[in-house]
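Dataset card, provenance and construction

Sequences and ligand SMILES were collected as paired inputs. For each pair, a complete structure of the chain with the small molecule in place was predicted and serialized as structure tokens. The example below shows a pair involving zinc ion. Curators did not alter the output after generation; any descriptive sentences attached to a record were derived from the structure itself.
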Amino acid sequence: MIIRNCRIRGKEGLFDVVCENGIFQKITPHKSILEEAMEEENVFEAEGRMMMPPFVEPHIHLDCVLTAGIPHYNMSGTLFEGISTWHEYKTTQPLVVSEIKERAKEALRLMAEHGVQFVRTHVDVTETSFKGVEALLELKEEMKGTIEIQTIAFPQNGIMSLKNGKELMIRAMDMGIDCVGGIPHYEYTREYGLESLKFIFDLAEKYDACVDVHCDEIDDGQSRFLETLATMAWERGWGKRTVAAHTCAMGSYNDAYCSKLFRLLKDSEINFNSCPAASTHLQGRIDTFPKRRGITRIKELSEAGMNVALGQDSISDPWYPLGVGNLLRVLEMGVHVAQMTGYEDLRHCLDFISTNGAKNLCLDQEYGIEEGKDASFILLDGKNDMEVLRFLSPVVLSVHKGKTIVEKIPAKAKVLF
Ligand SMILES: [Zn+2]
């Protein structure tokens, strides 16, 4: 397959890209390959559109997607009503592996349409039938070579605050879940939260797994599990394999504490994840006015050299009723609420939903537009980051390891004046 006449994000000029046997064989300036050497059926004419590595979804709950409204909608819009509505769902609806897989697959189709090829999903391990775990492990195997999935054991109702919380986490890891999750701010006490973090890192070491924790997802400036998470990652040399998700409380920390905290965060080398659409929707609900935005310090963390990836968290579930799998919409929300709309910010904004996510997922050889790497890429109907975000440009072609998984012809409006 040859992609003719494309831009490549971050490079000057136009290129022809040759993919063979699932890898990038040759990337050359446009027209340096003789036209007659190209067999027409293998050539995709890019018309100057931008090629880049695929989008990465670092934080979603595939076991919960597309369940909004069952048994009822989240009427208050709070995180806690989301958790209790999900609890009702899982204790009143018959949980069937094939049904969970079909919902999750439908969400993956939506994401694929919008350029996602790598997904890290949580799966609730406090749903004790473990149908969600079974479903997502099966789906992960079935989707290999089309969309790559990493799974996280997520203790929705806590680890220490459940009599058998630790056993459930161990059982999930034994079944083949990839990463260890947590929810320290939701545990009954601060002490339980701290104890859960120690358990999480012990488990990660035992199973040689990444850590990806829902951390301080609350508008409580006193919720400070992040400092313990980062310290443990630093002590154990686990920073590059650790993600602190949400850290909403950082939006409420005072500046003196935050500036002290940043030194540790940087030394720890941990990664961050923020879900600006979901968090802006869920947080700040108990405030009157001024109303907090409920998101972490995305701009400040990035400017201090730390890695922050943006994710969706939800697609039409008890926590968030909207979402169509389009990370550009999440990014659009993110750059607004974090005030990253300056020229320099917008020039590189797609990092947040691509390369930064790849770091969270510890992707390496399989990620990037370079000769010799896996031929996984998307072609966007735009020329640069700012244009793509501004027009929410469609993905016209998505290729994973040399296999085309999505083709799209963008709609053209006929404006009659
Ligand atoms: Zn989440």
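Derived descriptions for this record:
The radius of gyration is 21 Å.
The mean pLDDT is 96.
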